Fold:
Amino acid sequence: MSWRRLTLALSLGAVALLSCAPAPPRSVVLIVVDTLRADHLGLYRHDRETSPVLDALGREAVVFDNAFATSPWTLPSFGSLFTGRPPAEHLAGWPAPRTDDAPEGRNFLPLRAGMPTLAETLLAADRDTAAIMNNAFLHPDFGVARGFQTYDHIGGNRKRIRRADEVVDRALEWLGKDGRGDFLLVVHFFDPHLNYDAPEPFRGRFAPTEMSDEERSSMMELRPLRKRVRAKEDVDWDFLIGAYDEEIAFVDQQLGRLWEGLEESGRLADSVVILTADHGEEFGDHGGFEHGHTLYNELVRIPLVVWGPGMRPGRRAEPVSLIDIFPTVVELLGLPALEGLPGRSLAPMLERPSRAGEPRTLIAERTLYGPQRESAIAWPYKVIYEPQRGRTELFNLEDDPLERQNISKLRRRVATDLVARIQAYRVHAESIGPDDAVELDEKTLENLRSLGYIQ
Ligand SMILES: [Zn+2]
Structure:
């Protein structure tokens, strides 16, 4: 074969290859379901039908079996989702130094100023950016609105939230606006958060009851319930879990509506869609209730499901974190890679199951109540460390995914090594320097009080 013919054959081959490879996605839909623990979805083998829509859609998706939040409550986890960094680096939700005019409860830091966010990055790459948010901890004062042209925020409380159906209405309305360009759309659902009060016909499906709304609400008062759990008094877990699952089933139905709307808009084919959660929920798994207080898997193991062109649907077992989503989106959209992020792009793993990369350590931290806890996962081991008491627990997540057996004494060297990794990471994070605290307005404080988060 002559050189000319060879060159021609090679370039034809290249053209054929190029035409087979799908074009990279242009737009991103990021769905975050507040308080959704992975193991309450059918997709993650829940024994109750909470998620028929998602289970069906999930067959066309890449499903991460071991995805972890960086914190057991909303603000630090969202900070990680939006910056690709653990909480001690982005600081959102970190306790601020106490001062005379900043009483306790107002002492949270916002997202660190100047740290690039997902929305800022996509806005700079000519995407329309919008978020529909429903948690008081996602108030713009916390810095999480940075980079969004539209930040539609209603801070929910125990009695009043914007439900999933209204959230989907708002999302589709924004999507359908004339002249909508390529976009980043963040859709946040608050429904599975307390109170658990799904609308008909979901209400009563898993937790049938004759209770009045008032009685029902009193069953879910956070502080009295926590006290009863601590005192080992009887708690009707079946009712609470059933009512929680009803909320998930309602969100699942509304996810179906969102999906149909995306299909009808004609934007689904060139979008990447990501579904995840900010943290889970505890129902007595380790002697507690709700979230924010520990780093066990019921609070940090979250769903992560990704759909998009060129991906190979199926399960992925590698441990991944919320900090991976920002670099993943950047790579999938073909934008320049970000320097110095601790997260890892999952794009190669989305295309091919075997491309997992080097083993690494995943950090979770910043508990909202009780003793501070920090954790590190170096698969299959997970350490949970309490710096004040020097208490260490070690679990093998492969043998013991429910974290029943503390093996820190049997595997002392592994435990010591993982604690050392947490300490080294913390030294690194603290070297980044201090930041300014945020002062919250009265309405946000009222919402947070109503949720039981502050006094
Ligand atoms: Zn949350």
Summary: The longest strand covers residues 128-135. The chain has a mean pLDDT of 90. The pocket of zinc ion is lined by residues 34-35, 73-74, 135, 278-279 (CB under 6 Å). The radius of gyration is 22 Å.
